[in-house]
Amino acid sequence: MIDPLFVSAFIMGLIGSGHCIAMCGGIASSLQLATDKTRPLQYSIAYNIGRAASYMLAGALVAGISSHFATQSHWFALTLAFLSGLFMILVGLYIMRLGVTLQWLESFGKTLIWQHLVKLNRFIMPINSLPKAMAYGALWGWLPCGLVYSALTWAMTSNTALDGALVMLFFALGTFPAMLSIGMGAQVLHKVLNHPWARIALGSVLIWYGIYLLIIATDKLLH
């Protein structure tokens, strides 16, 4: 039976696809312009596999570290539970575009990681092979993104590094439909997911789920 956390991560990726399109749609589209025009789907799939691989690596790293401390401290585990609920609410507000919410976290990621990794781009361009497309996706998988960082807070609550990697894999799979469609030049999904009412509806789902996670964490605290 699939762990409910994996299912939740997949749904989060699916619901947050509108944000993914806004953040990475231009990258996916530029990938099509820079590659073999006869194999656009193959290049898009390779790009997204690389992106998922980076997510899984990040998930394994944070889960491996956090699980070590969580097994030694009940309070640390509870703190992670509260953080996962809080970040779920923040990402819901983020998708609804009600304030800056997670932009501070993206700025932190840009300063700490991205400004260094993006320099590797020159070793990948031009993208004239599937391995290069995959490497391109793996590099851009580290692009500062509040949605990804929120998913990582879920990965942090995992018991093992493998579980953390799987959480991020399911999250990535949830984003695949939107990212592949953008890679193929479809704009309809972009308009639907970024419509104000769609953002409000999808963001509300994440906010209510975040409240549910906070209730569970509070119950554990009291009992």
From TrEMBL:
- All copies of the Urease accessory protein UreH-like transmembrane domain together span 9-212
From which domain of life does this come? Answer: Bacteria
Which stretches are transmembrane?
6-31, 52-69, 75-96, 133-152, 164-185, 197-217
Enumerate the UniProt keywords alphabetically. Answer: Membrane, Transmembrane, Transmembrane helix
Checking Pfam families in the record gives: DsbD_2 (PF13386)
- Protein name as annotated: Sulfite exporter TauE/SafE family protein
